[in-house]
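Question: Now follow the chain.
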Amino acid sequence: MSHTYHFSTLWTGKSADAVVTERHDIALLFDATNCNPNGDPDTGNMPRLQPDTLHGLVTDVCLKRKVRNFFSQHAPGGQPRVEGSARDSTDRYAVFIHENAVIQTNLESSAVRQRAKHLFNAWLASDAFSVERRAEIRRLLDEPLFDLDDNTYEIKPGSGINGEDKKKAEKLKKDFTDRFDKSFRDALADLFFDIRYFGAVVSTEGPLKGSFYGQIRGPLQITFAESLDKILQLDFSITRCAVANEAEAEKKGDDNRTMGRKYVVPYGLYRCHIHFSPAFAAKTGFNYGDFDNFLFALTRCLGDFNVDGSSARPGGMRVVGLVDFQHKDALGNAPAHKVFDLVKVEGKKCSDGKFASGSEFPQGLHDYTGSAADGPIYVEKNKYEQVVACSTIKPPPKDGNEAVSPIDARRLIWSWETPDGKQLGDVL
């Protein structure tokens, strides 16, 4: 499963290694058919449910896990992966939070230490230090500044200094310690894609314990996915013609069958929103290549391609809508809820509020109609420069000036007919 980067259509004029500098808001729609999209351990693994509306829920953690599982099995170039295996320091798609992971062990791995050492030494060798400054550092601080071989560092004021020099040495010690912690954070974000994408809290144990840099905020934030209508939870009894051990076999005698339960949702259409912050992308080094890979993973991480398949989700989940709104500026050119209003999906219901089948629960994607923007988005503001509406219709010239679109909508996947009657496929 090879992946070709789509810089000609998605990132025109951008480099794969360039950090993403503009805001994005993404609408993601997926459906679930005869499967359990997200079990709730508090209710015996039944499908998650919003108790007041009976709408289905899928947590953000569940969706992030599917993205992690995709990259655990497939590198961006399509090669199979072994989750948790040793990787060299050039690998940017290692998985930090994986099954049976020990966070402190990951933090203190040789790959992380060597990458942090490289980043710190690059800073030391940079033009940030003049010859005079370097001489002063050598006078005020004992060398070596730290020892990365055993994942420890120690910065001590030079022997025999006092007065103002001692104060300068203490400040240098703090500056170098902060820089070391920053180098460690940058090393983690560089090596582990899920830290670079979603962030992590790594200030509990290891070299960043108690450090400000141990609380890493990722640029991608995913909301809970909620079904557009009520879902029906079905509960099935299942049997196994085997027992766990000899003691259980003696207890059951000739009948070795054991009982279990399985839960499914006949059908549900779910929607969530994804927000991207370029400010946090600058801190974790999230680039356009990462963004391209993330969008590609969204199209492959659900059951339609069986990448995250299981008996509870046997290909019963698929992405039916994926729309990316790319703003021109880092702060965004319109509120997210205004652009999301341009993605409309509604149930085809009769006057009694039921679907055509006569049921209050949807039976399939055919029970919904949808439309989404694709192309330039124009923003209407009031006299206070507040955005009041977003539209795909270009307004007439004002004061002799043509209207400029500050937002581009890319309808990457859409499973409903477009206004021209065509059916869109997966363009990624």
